[in-house]
Amino acid sequence: MQRYFASTFNNQVILDKDDVFHLTKVMRVKSGDYIEIVDENHRPYLAVVVNVNPLIIEKQEPIIKNSELNKNVTLFFGLAKSDKVEFVIQKATELGASSVILFQGKRSVVKFSNEDFERKLPRFNAIAKEAAEQCHREIIPEIKYIKSINEVDKYMCDLNLFAYELSAGSTNGFDELIKSNLNSVSVIVGPEGGFDESEANYLDKLGFKRVSLGKRILRCETAAVYALSVLAFNIEK
Ligand code: SAH
């Protein structure tokens, strides 16, 4: 069943413009059809379409199933070309990340000013929202941008993992780091050019733990998907 993030007023469900279009023109919803909505408190509900034109949707009973990871997962992702960033935002959302923080790496080929980021943010947010609806999440991950790795410390978690290409090899120990008592985990993945030595030293100093994503050197977008998959797999087992 299709899920939408919505605001609610008493039992009335209010969808944004794009979702109204999707529901009425793409899904061609009819009165009496059911949809799932997630309200402003991140709670999912069943909802019924009472009328199509004008669109009237009523909130019904809560949906008990929860689809969120029981730990907050943050992905730090080195700035890459926009299509890669968009791919990673979509996949990180599907894999349960609660935030994606883009950073300008020393070896990032692409450079963003804060204004560039602000301009792209609505599109990044739309990708995260659509992916969160498609995979039935209760939250839409936050997308942020930091100018350099030196600001990583503001967003550190209980456990912080450093996917370092120079650690490529046996994946031994990666999954063992993910203990049940942790509330939050982050993983940092470098840009296409990888990490500069000074960046690696800085992450070591902050207490990031170096992890390997196997013997092959992965493209940055594959590395992000791999790392988040290992995290989700181990958190949900
Ligand atoms: N250009 C670099 C590779 C960068 S790969 C080189 O030739 O060495 C992009 C990012 O993906 C890396 O910075 C790292 O975060 C991650 N990555 C890719 N393969 C990895 C592996 N086997 N182990 C750990 N991290 C890896």
Order of helices and strands: EEEHEEEEHEHEEEHEH
Structural class: alpha/beta
Tell me the overall shape.
Answer: elongated
Helical coverage, percent range: 25-40%
Percentage of residues in strands: 25-35%
Q: What count of helical segments does DSSP give? A: 5
How confident overall, as mean pLDDT? Answer: 96
* Integer-rounded radius of gyration: 20 Å
- Please list the strands of the largest sheet in the order they lie side by side: 9-8-7-11-10-12
Which spans have pLDDT < 50 for at least 5 consecutive residues? none
End-to-end separation? 25 Å
Textual characterization of the structure:
With 237 residues, the chain is α/β, with parallel strands linked by helices. It has five helices and twelve strands. The chain has helices at 17-26, 82-94, 114-134, 197-206, 220-236; strands at residues 3-5, 7-9, 12-14, 34-38, 44-51, 56-62, 72-78, 99-103, 142-146, 159-163, 184-189, 209-211. It has a six-stranded parallel sheet, with helices on one face. A four-stranded mixed sheet has the order 1-4-5-6. A hairpin with a 2-residue loop joins β2 (7-9) and β3. The longest helix has 21 residues, at 114-134. The chain is elongated. The two termini are 25 Å apart. The mean pLDDT is 96. Bound molecules: S-adenosyl-L-homocysteine. S-adenosyl-L-homocysteine is lined by residues 163-165, 167-168, 189-190, 193-195, 212-214, 216-218, 220, 223.
